[in-house]
Amino acid sequence: MNDQDQQVVTVRDNPDKSRFDVLVDGVEAGFSMYKDLGTTSARQRIFYHTVVFDAFEGHGLASTLTRAALSTSVQAGYRIVAVGPYVKKWLSLHHEFDDATEPVSPEHLRALR
Q1: Rounded CA gap, 44 and 105, in Å?
Q2: Beta-carbon count within 10 A of 96 CB
Q3: How many Å apart are CA 30 and CA 52, to the nearest integer?
Q4: 3-class secondary structure per residue, 30-77
Q5: Domain 3-111 has CATH 3.90.550.10
Q6: How far apart are CA 79 and CA 88, in angstroms?
Q7: What angle do CA 91, 65, 27 make, to 5 degrees?
Q8: Rounded distance between C-alpha atoms, residue 103 and residue 47, angstroms
C-alpha cells in the first residue's frame, strides 16, 4: 500500500465560490468551477474550468472530482453542460451521464463572459 492509498480524498460543493473542491487529507488539492443557469424546473450547470494543483497531479484526483461533481449536480436536478476541456473529455470517456448532458450553446458561452 502506498501513501496515496492511505490518504482521505473528499469532494465538496463550495457554492459560495461556485465550484467543487477536492481535498486530500483536508488540504485543498484542486477545484472544478461551474455556473448555474435556468429556473428551478430547467436548471443547467456549466462546468468550465478544472484544476488539480501540481503537488497533487498524477493520482486521478481530477477524475474523482469530476465524477463526484457531476453526480452531485445531477442528483440535485441539474443538467450538465461541459465547456471546460477536462470535463468535456471526461464525459467522452465515461458515459454514465450521457442522459444528463446538454450540448454547449451560444447562450452558455455568453453566460461565462
Answers
A1: 12
A2: 11
A3: 4
A4: EEEEEEEECCCCCCEEEEEEEEECHHHCCCCHHHHHHHHHHHHHHHCC
A5: no
A6: 14
A7: 160
A8: 12
pTM of structure: 0.91
Read off the C-alpha cell for 96.
454514465
Grid coordinates representing 9 are 480524498
As averages over each run of 10 residues, the pLDDT of the chain (113 residues) reads 70 98 97 91 94 96 98 97 97 97 95 93
CA–CA gap between residue 36 and residue 16 (Å, rounded): 12
**Cα distances (angstroms) measured from residue 61 to each of 100, 102, 110, 111:** 22, 24, 29, 27
All three cell numbers of 72: 452531485
